[in-house]
Amino acid sequence: MPIALVGIAAALIFANGVALLSPTFFAVWTSFLPWVGFLGPVGFILGVMLGFVLVGALILMLLRFRVMAAFMIFPTAIVSLFIGGGFILGTVLAVLAGILLLL
Predict the structure, then answer these.
(1) pTM recorded for the entire structure
(2) What is the rounded CA–CA span in Å between residue 31 and residue 92?
(3) Are 74 and 80 in contact (CB under 8 A)?
(4) What pLDDT, in 10s, does the model give residues 78-92?
(5) Helices marked H in 20-88 — which ranges?
(6) 66, 72, 75: which is closest to 101 by C-alpha?
(7) Are 73 and 92 in contact (CB under 8 A)?
(8) According to the model, what pLDDT value does residue 63 have?
(9) pLDDT, tens digit (0-9, with 9 covering 90-100), for 17-45
(10) What's the rounded Cα separation, in Å, for the pair 53 and 69?
(11) Residue 5 — very low, low, confident or very high, per pLDDT cuts 50/70/90?
(12) Residues in CB range of 17: below 8 A, 6 or more apart
């Protein structure tokens, strides 16, 4: 279950970062989250990097390093809020998966 949640969260956060390249999406998203406008192209880079960090956490989970993966997931989920968190759902899924990993 946590592997599926982190996989979905990684896809959502990655997709949100890539979607920030679209001027229309960027304009709509900055009306909801004004700090995204100040990030500019850094939001795209941040989204892609955070998606890859979650993929690394997936690999750690498959290698049975659950606690280490949880400590990778929590900061990634918090930082992903700066770009909208993969439509916020990515952040919620990542935090939930991190909690499940620690239990």
Answers:
(1) 0.80
(2) 21
(3) no
(4) 888 777 766 677 777
(5) 23-32, 35-39, 42-62, 66-80
(6) 66
(7) no
(8) 93
(9) 888 888 888 888 888 888 877 877 888 88
(10) 10
(11) confident
(12) 43, 44, 45, 46, 47, 48, 50, 51, 83
Tokens of 75: 């900061």
Averaged pLDDT score across all residues of the chain: 83
Q: Do 94 and 9 contact (CB within 8 A), yes or no?
A: yes
Residue 40 contacts residue 30 (beta carbons within 8 Å): no
Return the structure tokens found at 68. 């280490």
Which residues have a Cβ under 8 Å from the Cβ of 99 and sit 6 or more positions away? 70
Q: How confident is the model at residue 75 (pLDDT cuts 50, 70, 90)?
A: confident
**Contact criterion met (CB below 8 Å) for 57 and 73:** yes
Torsion of CA 44, 49, 53, 55, to 10 degrees: 70
| 8 Å CB contact between 20 and 47 | yes
Q: Which amino acid does the sequence have at 24?
A: T
